[in-house]
Amino acid sequence: MKTGLRVKMNEDKSITITPKCLQNNGKSFIGATGELWPCCWLYTDREHMEDWALRNDCDIEELSLKKYTILEVQKSNLMQKFYKSFDTKTCRNNCSTDSWKNKHNTKRGDLTTVSE
Ligand code: SF4
């Protein structure tokens, strides 16, 4: 596991986030609506990403695969800024220190069995 990033969150709090999307086996996610997302959790909670984009003066349309190639989305202003931020409730819930201790967290594809 790559080490965590100390991230300054919007509410003036700091929190350690170890982004699963930046791990060696991290996966981007193509949503049914035709956008490339950093992960499936943000696609599900898209309003959190839309709020982040507004707060950070980014255009959510930069994720659109109808307008841009995968490489262009990955190199977009939005993605470059986001990968230095992770200031979303979704990221706090899924990639803060506590989230890594959740053995039921299987969405990144690592864990196939859970023993209680
Ligand atoms: S929730 Fe945030 S930090 Fe975690 S994998 Fe998704 S984009 Fe990356």
Can you tell me about this structure?
This protein is of the alpha+beta class. The chain has one domain. 28% of the residues lie in helices and 10% in strands. It is built from 5 helices and 4 strands; from the N terminus they run E-E-E-E-H-H-H-H-H. The strands form 2 sheets. Strands 1-2 form a two-stranded antiparallel ribbon. Strands 3-4 form a two-stranded antiparallel sheet. A hairpin with a 5-residue loop joins strand 3 and strand 4. The longest helix has 10 residues, at 46-55. The protein is globular and about 35 Å long. The two termini are 23 Å apart. The structure holds iron/sulfur cluster. The site of iron/sulfur cluster has 13 residues, from helix 1 and helix 5.
Which hetero ligands occur in this complex?
iron/sulfur cluster
Unreliable residue stretches: 109-116
Q: Spell the H/E element sequence.
A: EEEEHHHHH
How is the largest sheet built, in terms of strand order? 1-2
- Backbone shape: globular
C-alpha end-to-end distance: 23 Å
Tally of individual helices: 5
Percent helix: 25-40%
Strand content: 5-15%
Give a brief outline of the structure.
The protein contains five helices and four strands, in the order E-E-E-E-H-H-H-H-H. It starts with a strand and ends in a 21-residue tail after the last helix.
Keywords, separated by commas or semicolons:
alpha+beta; 116 residues; binds iron/sulfur cluster; two-stranded antiparallel sheet; single chain; disordered C terminus; 4 strands; two-stranded antiparallel ribbon
